[in-house]
From TrEMBL:
Keyword Endoplasmic reticulum: no
Protein family: Belongs to the glycosyl hydrolase 27 family.
Enzyme class, first EC level, given as a word: hydrolase
Protein name according to UniProt: Alpha-galactosidase
Alphabetized GO MF terms: alpha-galactosidase activity
EC number: 3.2.1.22
Pfam families xrefs: Melibiase_2 (PF16499), Melibiase_C (PF17801)
Length: 195
């Protein structure tokens, strides 16, 4: 997939800007600057969502990877007000998809749990507490273990109270690790509070 030399190849404009454009052979030949001229109809300015990777969301054109400087200059010349880079084709929980259809309850729960941890499978909270998600991305049930040093609890001898956030129940006191059997595409999410 080659990128057109000299001209910006922005599927972003085709997918996300709600202004008419004329595109030939994958090149934006009209629309960038002329679209900006008509942006006065928008109260909050004009923004784009360019793809960060090697491909666009449609996987039919090259993305911005390696062309960031060229694209930034093009966007600046067009008077674009803001950019929100998209991570199409990558794990990118920047938006909650809960309730939009297409996933099981367990998949929605997993999506929300991972999103809540902001791309980390464990998070340090106030008071020395730790949030941890044991997420099974596999196709069958699995046993998953997280050891204290791997999730930010320095001493393996630390005893914690573990609370299952989805079951709304304390599961007891644990030392050194937490283990759970997790269904396919499901997760267990806990808050571990040192005693």
């Amino acid at each position: 997939m080659a990128r057109a030399g000299g001209e910006a190849t922005m599927t972003t404009l085709l997918l996300f800007v709600l202004l008419p454009m004329i595109v030939t052979e994958g090149r934006v030949t009209k629309g960038g600057a002329s679209a900006v001229e008509r942006r006065s109809v928008l109260d909050d300015g004009l923004g784009l969502t360019p793809p960060m990777g090697t491909q666009t969301c449609s996987k039919t054109m090259p993305g911005s990877l390696g062309y960031e400087e060229q694209d930034a200059k093009t966007f600046a010349a067009w008077g674009i007000d803001y950019l929100k880079y998209d991570n199409c084709n990558n794990q990118d929980p920047d938006m909650l998809e809960v309730g939009n259809g297409g996933m099981t309850t367990e998949e929605y729960r997993s999506h929300f749990s991972i999103w809540a941890l902001a791309k980390a499978w464990a998070a340090i909270l106030s008071g020395g507490r730790v949030a941890v998600v044991l997420w099974n991305r596999g196709s069958s049930r699995a046993t998953i273990t997280a050891k204290w040093p791997d999730i930010g609890i320095v001493s393996p001898s630390t005893i914690v109270n573990a609370r299952d956030l989805w079951a709304h129940a304390d599961i007891g006191h644990l030392q050194g690790e937490i283990t759970a059997t997790v269904d396919s595409h499901a997760c267990k999410m806990y808050i571990l509070t040192p005693l």
